[in-house]
Amino acid sequence: MNAEARRILLVDDDTDLLRLLSMRLSAAGYAVTQVESAEQAMARFPVLQPDLVVTDLRMAGMDGLGLFEEIRKINASVPVIILTAHGSIAEAVEATRRGVFSFLTKPVDSRALLEEVRKALNLSGAQPGVAPTGKDVAWRREIITCSPLMEDLLGRLKLVAESESSVLLLGESGTGKELLARAIHLASPRAAGPFVAVNCGSIPEALLESELFGHTKGAFTGATQDYVGLFKSANGGTLLLDEIGDMPLALQVKLLRVIQEKQVRSVGSTRVEPVDVRIVSATHRDLEAAVASGQFRQDLYYRLNVVCLEVPSLARRREDIPLLAEHFRKTLATRSGKKLTGFAPEAMEMLLNASWPGNIRQLINVIEQAVALSTTPVISADLLQAALRVSPEKFPTLAEARRKFEQDYLVRLMQMTRGNVSQAARIADRNRTDFYKLLQRHHIVPQLFKPE
């Protein structure tokens, strides 16, 4: 059995059917655990941590819906498929209203079951090799992910955190750069010290110097008392300079001096004071381009960019969307006092297919609006459509992605060779006849690329 196969907990008091379904699911590559009652399932659930539960509805003792409710209390993101020989419209409606992923009647069609299992696992974001748990990962406790991209980033982040090197976090707005900066702090030897964050783009230029370095009483109009500043507040800990790309050039010079000399002078003071601060900076801007255009100092860039970590956009870690959506749904529902059991399958599919230009920040806003407007226990696709305000962008299939790549590749070849099919075929390492067939398949006419 593949140790990284997705784990399915199969529950049925019919031992023959249990064995048959287990064989079918195992043959499809899943790691199946069989139990004969809901009580046994609850005993195995915390240890097994399944990605999906498939359960009979009618069983002695606790029934399938009762098992579903107990599972929701432990982990609401695990989808549940219910099987029954006593199927009825009323039971199906009740089950889906309460958040059950799907409801199948016996005798179960193998293809239908496998298709529902596939959909449930895709929409739940279940992935093999999810993040570990325990004291050794306390530093990442606020980061919700099962994405290989994020796991790779977190592995490098942990290594970097143990050093004193300055770190530059690059990524789109709303990707969680401050959360990752805090994780660096918590994983570092400075974890017991303060973590201080400042958004360099949100503070007026005239006040930013005072905010960073402090000021003395009477240093300027309105300075009615001494202010220590964020550098001294972060002494012994970590200072996050968020949106560092928005820092004015004049202040960049002073920041560089503080980093080099490890001492700070408050505005209005002649006395310098030592500071021991680890710098983490973050930006959504292209700092290399800013350096090239003279908008950002090259010497400061190299001081800040000792280690550079790129934070992936939400669109590049779509497998995290169900986990994040469930987390925000539970948090926001608790805050608002609403009893929401989950998302309709169509709603979760809509979240998975959205383009998310605002990343996780946008996802939070969408879920918050849906929670506020929801009048049923299950969040519907209509609510999310209204919150997204855009038609969801469908994620392409492999065939669609391959076709798009081929078409773009052929058009570029035709442009490079100015419609010379023989030359293009040689570059593509295809014989001329096959290459012509490719062009015809994509409706590309070589003559259109020849110079007039």
UniProtKB/TrEMBL annotation:
<keyword id="KW-0805">Transcription regulation</keyword>
<dbReference type="GO" id="GO:0005524">
    <property type="term" value="F:ATP binding"/>
</dbReference>
<feature type="domain" description="Sigma-54 factor interaction">
    <location>
        <begin position="143"/>
        <end position="372"/>
    </location>
</feature>
<keyword id="KW-0597">Phosphoprotein</keyword>
<keyword id="KW-0067">ATP-binding</keyword>
<dbReference type="InterPro" id="IPR002078">
    <property type="entry name" value="Sigma_54_int"/>
</dbReference>
<dbReference type="GO" id="GO:0006355">
    <property type="term" value="P:regulation of DNA-templated transcription"/>
</dbReference>
<keyword id="KW-0547">Nucleotide-binding</keyword>
<dbReference type="InterPro" id="IPR011006">
    <property type="entry name" value="CheY-like_superfamily"/>
</dbReference>
<dbReference type="InterPro" id="IPR003593">
    <property type="entry name" value="AAA+_ATPase"/>
</dbReference>
<protein>
    <submittedName>
        <fullName>Response regulator</fullName>
    </submittedName>
</protein>
<dbReference type="Pfam" id="PF25601">
    <property type="entry name" value="AAA_lid_14"/>
</dbReference>
<dbReference type="InterPro" id="IPR025944">
    <property type="entry name" value="Sigma_54_int_dom_CS"/>
</dbReference>
<keyword id="KW-0238">DNA-binding</keyword>
<dbReference type="InterPro" id="IPR058031">
    <property type="entry name" value="AAA_lid_NorR"/>
</dbReference>
<dbReference type="InterPro" id="IPR025662">
    <property type="entry name" value="Sigma_54_int_dom_ATP-bd_1"/>
</dbReference>
<dbReference type="GO" id="GO:0000160">
    <property type="term" value="P:phosphorelay signal transduction system"/>
</dbReference>
<feature type="domain" description="Response regulatory">
    <location>
        <begin position="7"/>
        <end position="121"/>
    </location>
</feature>
<keyword id="KW-0902">Two-component regulatory system</keyword>
<keyword id="KW-0804">Transcription</keyword>
<dbReference type="Pfam" id="PF00072">
    <property type="entry name" value="Response_reg"/>
</dbReference>
<dbReference type="InterPro" id="IPR027417">
    <property type="entry name" value="P-loop_NTPase"/>
</dbReference>
<dbReference type="InterPro" id="IPR001789">
    <property type="entry name" value="Sig_transdc_resp-reg_receiver"/>
</dbReference>
<dbReference type="Pfam" id="PF00158">
    <property type="entry name" value="Sigma54_activat"/>
</dbReference>
<dbReference type="GO" id="GO:0003677">
    <property type="term" value="F:DNA binding"/>
</dbReference>
<dbReference type="InterPro" id="IPR025943">
    <property type="entry name" value="Sigma_54_int_dom_ATP-bd_2"/>
</dbReference>
<feature type="modified residue" description="4-aspartylphosphate">
    <location>
        <position position="56"/>
    </location>
</feature>
<dbReference type="InterPro" id="IPR009057">
    <property type="entry name" value="Homeodomain-like_sf"/>
</dbReference>
